[in-house]
Design brief:
189 residues, mainly beta, 8-stranded mixed β-sheet, 13 strands
Length: 189
């Protein structure tokens, strides 16, 4: 069951940073890059997001935010489901396309198709997660979207060699990739 609620009463908030000051504070905070697609029945939409986070494995939930300024936001909020594409460095052109205002994100019909359930998706993404929208929360000029993940597709390592298998990162208004060379402390694999 989908829930739509107001999260924050803006009138009760203390005066805060300016928008420019807030952006400057977060500019040095890197974010993974994703593309979100949806179709509420009037045609597919897509947007690039660096706000995607996993929230829970049981149940499988993820969250992202959409800006009121994005032309894709109304369609995403009207949709019952979305596809979240977790991009690799090989998909920087897709990330840029879906971040460009006014661009026809679906002009290249070879780059995308639809799931059996109807959602549009980009075939180049190494990971895509289909899910139903479980809740939305108004938060300032954005809306937080909670997604119950129902299916995931992972490209095999053979199908996504090199840059495609390295995460795409956005940091200080520039696209980056992670690699073995960026590892500071050996982790567990």
């Amino acid at each position: 069951m989908r829930q739509d609620v107001a999260l924050i009463d803006e009138a009760s908030l203390e005066p805060g940073l300016s928008a420019d000051g807030f952006r400057e504070a977060f500019r040095n905070h890197a974010g993974g890059v994703a593309v979100v697609t949806a179709d509420a029945g009037r045609g597919p939409v897509a947007l690039t997001a660096t706000s995607v986070i996993s929230v829970s494995a049981t149940p499988p939930l993820l969250v992202f935010s959409v800006s009121a300024l994005s032309s894709a936001t109304p369609t995403i909020l009207e949709s019952s489901s979305v596809v979240v594409h977790l991009l690799g460095a090989g998909q920087v052109d897709l990330a840029r396309l879906c971040a460009t205002s006014g661009a026809d994100r679906f002009a290249d019909t070879a780059a995308w198709t639809r799931l059996a359930t109807g959602e549009p998706y980009f075939v180049a993404a190494p990971v895509r997660i289909r899910g139903t929208i479980a809740a939305t929360f108004a938060a300032g000029a954005s809306t937080l979207v909670v997604v119950n993940a129902t299916h995931a597709h992972h490209a095999s390592a053979d199908a996504a060699p090199g840059d495609a298998s390295r995460p795409l990162i956005y940091h200080n208004r520039t696209w980056h990739q992670l690699s073995e060379l960026s590892e500071l402390v050996p982790g567990t694999r």
